[in-house]
Every structure is written in C-alpha cells, then in structure tokens.
Amino acid sequence: MNRLRLALVPGEPAGVGPELCVRLVQSARDHRLTAFGDPEALQDAARVLDLPLHLVAPDDDHGRAGELAVHAIPNAVRVAFGQPDRANAPAVIDALETAAQGCLRGDFQGLVTGPVHKAVINQGGIPYTGTTELLAKQARCSVVMMLANETMRVALATTHLPLREVPDAITPASLVATLRTVHAALRTDFGIQHPRIAVLGLNPHAGEAGHLGLEEIEVIEPVLAGLRSEGMTLEGPLPADTAFLPARLQGFDALLAMYHDQGLPVLKFSGFEQAVNITLGLPYPRVAVDHGTALDLAGKGTADPSSLIAAMATCARMARARSAIMAR
Questions:
Q1: CB 144 within 8 A of CB 112
Q2: Three-class SS of residue 160?
Q3: Quick check: 203 pLDDT over 60?
Q4: What is the per-residue pLDDT across 49-62, written as a single tens digit (0 to 9) for each?
Q5: Angstrom distance (rounded) from CA 67 to CA 301
Q6: What CATH number corresponds to the domain at position 205?
Q7: Considering only CA atoms, which of 82, 173, 89, 160 is closest in space to residue 127?
Q8: Structural domain tally of the chain?
Q9: Helix, strand, coil proportions of the chain in percent (round to 5)?
Q10: Across-strand partners of 7?
Q11: How many whole angstroms separate alpha carbon 36 and alpha carbon 52?
Q12: Domain span at residue 297?
C-alpha cells in the first residue's frame, strides 16, 4: 500500500518556521513528507537547535527520525534569524504555490503550512492578504476558515473584517454556502457521517427575540430552517456566552461563529498550543499553525513546536479520511 504523501511549507525563513520543521521530523513517521523551501535555512535551524537533519531528495523519503525530503526553493539572500528580508518574499510565495499545485495534481494528499509574515510579503511587491486566500484563488474555489484543538472546532462565517462591517457581510447566501462547506468537510475530512453543528447568533443573547437585533430573525433562523429541511443537524442561533460551556460542547461536532473574536478567543484559551488553522473547501486538506512568525524567538531554539505537530497530525487524519471515502 502506498504511504500517505504530505507537503510542508516552513513559511517565513527568518521566523521560527524552519526550527519548528526541524523539531517536527525528529520522530519517525508513517507518512512521506516533502518540505518546500530553502535547504540552507533548514540546515541553519538544525545547527541552532543542535539537532540532526538529513536532507534527502523528495523520492528518497523513508520517514526516519531526523530525515526530511526537500523540494528546494532557494531564498534570494541568506537568512538572518529574526530579520525578515523582503527580497525573500518571492521564494515564500513560490513555495506555497508550488506545494499547493502538487496537491492539486495529486502528488500529495495534504498541505501543512508554517507562519508567513504578511507585511514582508507586501513589502516585497506581492499583493498578499493571507495564505488561505492565496490557496483559494489558486484552486478557484470558496473556502471557510476553521480553527480546532482537542476541545472544539470553530468555523467562521466572516474572518478579518472590522466589526462595523460584519452584519452586512452575513447574508443568507453567504451563510448557506458557509454551512454547506462546513457540513461537507466534517463528513469528508473528519469522517463524521451525521455532523452536528451549533450556529451562534450575532447579537448578545442571540438577539433576545428581536429586542437586541434582528439578524437572527431575518437572516440566521430562515437559513437554518432551510438547511434543516435538506437533512442537516443544526442548532441555533445560540447565545455565544453559553454555547461554549463544556456540557454544551459535547453535543456538537463544530460551532459556527459569526465573526473572528466571537469564537476564537474561547478556542485559544481552551488550548492555544495545540490549536491549528484548517482551510475547508479546498480540493485537498490544508492545515496551518495557529501562531505567527515569532521573530523575537527565531534563532533561540525555544519555540514550541506543538502547533506544527498538531497541524501535521490533523492533516494526516484528514487525508486518510478523504482516502477512505474515495475508496468506497
């Protein structure tokens, strides 16, 4: 049986991404892993950590501890820890696009990405709002952002918007599309045959029967009723201040928050170190770390690899779930 093949992009080379990748491969694994990035940056990170790193060609990966296959995408200039250089921005984007293209071709069954420095990419003359948007544009599909840890899965109806723009962005069409994407992903990528999704209200107390806002009555409730008639199990709209109670969470496979800071602070408080960022709706599983480049920690050997380890494990599980469904 062919081993699972996953692609790995370290991200910003001056940040902690290369160090996390070196720590990631210190244990043996049962899948094949190919990193897309600069070999020199990875070796520099291994030297800082004083850990073994044996770089091999993509077809030579055997999953041994300390071994990492590399598809070389050299940086324009040598990396200094903690000092990102805009000259390396094209290499970072090239690594993301090349790895993702490999997933689209079927060469890899999933993609794991490290932290990218948005400002440096833009300073390099490349319009960039985020890796999620870049991958969606490349694959020509709509996506949904979900963050997850061992406690909960939280998807977002809107992502990086000012609060004053959120109500107008939550339309019946967008909410239907989002919930269909989340429902399909829970079945395909997580192997949950009958997903149970909790949908949060937008307003305090989910609008208090219209006294604190009408979005629940005019938008959310009709959408949920329509999707329930299609067979989805949806609960809500729920008041956000009680939906995350442990007893409530046990009844859900995922929650849909209406905006970024409605759901993510609770998730991160419940387990930030193991949290991962998942892009739902792509033709392949994509999982990212849930932290930034941590430039202040780069080169010190103290960065915690827990999120990258969790991202790799999550991506592998999702890829295997998809493969099992396709094999039926």
A1: no
A2: coil
A3: yes
A4: 999 999 999 988 88
A5: 19
A6: 3.40.718.10
A7: 89
A8: 2
A9: 45, 20, 40
A10: 34, 111
A11: 19
A12: 1-141+282-328
